Fold this sequence. Notes:
It contains 1 helix and 10 strands, in the order αββββββββββ. By secondary structure, the chain is mostly beta strands.
Amino acid sequence: MKLRLALLAAASTALAGAANAAPVSANTTAQANIVSPNQVTATRSLEFGTIARPTSGVTTVTVASAATGTATPSLSGGNGFIPTSGLAHAATFRITGTNGQTYSVTGNTLSFPAAGGNLTNINAESPVAGSGTLNTLPASGIDDLHVGGRFDITNTTAIDTYSGTLSLTVDFN
Length: 173
């Protein structure tokens, strides 16, 4: 019986020791990568200014893709002319991402839906980056893309004010 009591006491002590053991823990690292949202925002519209239609031939009206505040469209062909210079400018789209992020312009369209056949060969010009590096954001993660456009007019183009839409689609990588 003494042996039994000794074994019982030893078992009770072992169980009590296991129940009173200190908690065990481990650590690992935690990580979060916060990035700027990829955004494209139109900040300035495309303006062609005032153009006098040609009396003969086809005149191509072009506003170059440039950061210039004011410009005069270039005209080629026909005898159309610009009565007041300095009334045009390229559109500006602000793109926001992260430092050095790459992107591609996957859509760039200009349309004048109500123009009918009055404005033809309507196209957007290729964008120009304000930072000078197209398709890669600078250290700030913000850049401006400047986009111009062009169209043709003839002596039959209706005298009117034409409104349209310039769309830019950017794919962030």
